Amino acid sequence: MPKDANGTELNAGDNVTLIKDLKVKGAGATLKRGTMVKNIKLTDDDKEIEGKIDKMGVIVLKTEFLKKA
């Protein structure tokens, strides 16, 4: 079961926020701290989730940079 930076379990459909500014490889953009990631989906890797970010689409993020909203 994936867990966020605080150790809280994450479930499919949860909303999470970023706890750190992250550079997006290939997009030339930076996701700012506090950005909302909506309706996450769990992946095969417990350290990664898929989520939708406004104006960017679906992106894969490491759970160590996320906090459950």
UniProtKB/TrEMBL annotation:
The lineage of its organism: Bacteria, Pseudomonadati, Campylobacterota, Epsilonproteobacteria, Campylobacterales. Residues 3-69 form the Protein YjdM C-terminal domain. InterPro entries: YjdM_C. It comes from the Bacteria. This is Alkylphosphonate utilization protein. It holds the Pfam family YjdM.
